[in-house]
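Q: Give me the 3D complex with glutamic acid.
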Amino acid sequence: MQPETTAKPAEKRQGMYKVVMDQFEHAADIMGLDPGVRKILAKTNSEIVVHFPVKLDDGTIEVFTGYRVQHNNALGPYKGGLRYHQTVDLDSARALAIWMTWKTALAGLPYGGGKGGVEINPKLYSKGELERITRRFTYALGDNIGPDLDIPAPDVNTNPQIMAWIADTYSSTKSPATRFANLHVVTGKPLGAGGLEGRDRATGFGVVATLKAWAKRKGKSLKGMRFIVQGFGNVGYWTAHFLTKEGAVLIAVQDASSTIHDPKGIDPEDLNRHVEANNRSIKDYPKAPTMDPAGFFGLACDIVVPAALGNQITAANAGGIKAQVVAEGANGPTDTEGEAILRANGVDIIPDILCNSGGVIGSYYEWLQNKRSEIWKIDEVLGMIQDKVMTAFDQVVNTAEEFKANWRDSAYIVALRRLEKTYMERGIFP
Ligand code: GLU
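A: Here is the predicted complex, encoded as C-alpha cells.
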C-alpha cells in the first residue's frame, strides 16, 4: 500500500517554491545576509495540514484538505491570504507564505508571513456548501490562527463573504465576552462585519501607485499606454479600474475560461458587470472578440499585469513580451527563467512583493481599525496606503542604486535587512 501523502504529482505542482527560494538565495548572496539568519529564513516555522469533512447539498460527505503555512514571525503575527484553488498544496502554500514575509517586511508592517487555503475548485460548489467548507476549515485550524498570532485575508477565489464566515466561526467558538476582541482574526471582511472602507480596492490601487511612480521615473505618462491583464478577479479588475482612470487603455484580458482582445479598448466597468453576473468569468463577454490564449502575453502593448496565478511568465512566453513593464499584481507570476529573458530584453519588472503590497497594507489598517474600535473613511485609508507603498518604492529604488541591483533583488534586500536587524538585536531564545 502507498503511504498516505499530501504530495502531488510533479506535473500538478505550480513550482513556486523553487522560484521563491531562487530569489531569496540570490538576494542573500548579493547583500551578504548573516549565515544564521539565512538558515532561519530558508525554513518555514510551521506547516499545518488539516483534513475535514463537509456535508454537501445532496447529503453526501466530502473530505477536504486545507493548509496554513507560517513562514516567519520575527516582525509580528503571521499575515497572509487563504486561497481556494485546485493548485493549493504544501509547496504552493510554503512559497506564498515566504513571499508574505518579504512583502510585510518591505512594507514596514509589524507582521510576518503566512499563507494557506483549501485544495478545491470553488466554482463547483454552492454558496451554502462554500459556507460550510469555510466554517469547518476555520474550526479545523482552531487556535493555529488568532488576532495576534496569524491573521488570514482574501486571496485567489476568496472574498469578503468568506472572511466574514471565518471571523464569525472563530469568534463563535470563543467566549462571547471576547467576540469583538477577536474581530481582527481576519482582514478583508465586508463593511458590515468589521471591514475597512477601501480594502476591496487596496491591491489594485497599490499596483497603479507603483506604475505611476515607475512612469514618473521614466519621464513618461500612463495616459494612452495600452495594457493587458491576466486574471479579472479583485486585483485584475481594480488595477484596470485605476489604470483606466489614469488614461491608459485596457486592450486584452485573459482568465481561466477565455482570452479577449480589442485594440480599440475594453471598458473594465462593463466587463466587471459581466463577470459578476457570469460566475466570475469573462467567458461569453459580447463586446470584445476572443483570441488564441497562447498569443496573450505577446500582444503589442506597454504594460503587462499578471494578476492571477504563479509561474505564468516563463521561458515559453517571456521572449514574446513586447511591453515596457511587467507589473506583478499576482504573487510569483514570473519564474526564474522567464525573468532572465525579460531582463535581457530590457523589460522592466515591478516585483510582486512591492507591486501588490497595497493589499496587505490595507489589511494592516483594517486590523488597526478593529483593534482601536475606530471607523475610518476611504480617502484617509487610500492616502495611508499610498504613503506606505511609495515609501517602499523609494527604498527599493535607492537600494537598487546602492547595490547596482535590479528592483526584485533590491526589494528583497530591503526586506532581508529588516529581518536581519531584528534577529541581531533580539537574539535567539534560549
Ligand atoms: N492575499 C493578499 C496577498 O497576497 C493579501 C494578504 C493580506 O492582506 O493579508 O498579499
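A quick observation: The longest helix spans residues 378-403.
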